[in-house]
Amino acid sequence: MMAFAVAGIVSYIDPVYIGWRLLLGSAAVPSIIQWIGYHYHLPQTPRYAFVKEGVEECEKVGFQSIFAHKS
């Protein structure tokens, strides 16, 4: 619903030269925010730790993720 509102507003701003660029840019903003959030705030997985850093780091990350929710 919000996309239709933004597209409607942007369509009145010089639709031939600037409007499509503004529409494309407004669609890119949420995806960039989502990428930044995923890149910096997702926890490390045991599979990624095994590939990048070895077995010891994999076991450490794996045990942390398994036992993190137990009280």
Structure description:
The protein has 4 helices and no strands. With 71 residues, it is an all-alpha fold. It is rod-shaped, with a radius of gyration of 21 Å. The two termini are 42 Å apart. It is a multi-pass membrane protein. Keywords: Membrane, Transmembrane, Transmembrane helix. It is found in: Membrane.
- Mean pLDDT equals 76
How many helical stretches? 4
Rg to the nearest angstrom? 21 Å
Provide the helix percentage: over 70%
Summarize the helix and strand pattern as letters: HHHH
List segments where confidence is low: pLDDT < 50 over at least 5 consecutive residues: none
Strand content: under 5%
What's the number of domains? 1
Pfam family, one: Sugar_tr
GO molecular function: transmembrane transporter activity
Keywords: Membrane, Transmembrane, Transmembrane helix
Subcellular location: Membrane
Brief rundown of the structure:
With 71 residues, the chain is mainly α. The protein is built from 4 helices and no strands. It starts with a helix and ends with a helix.
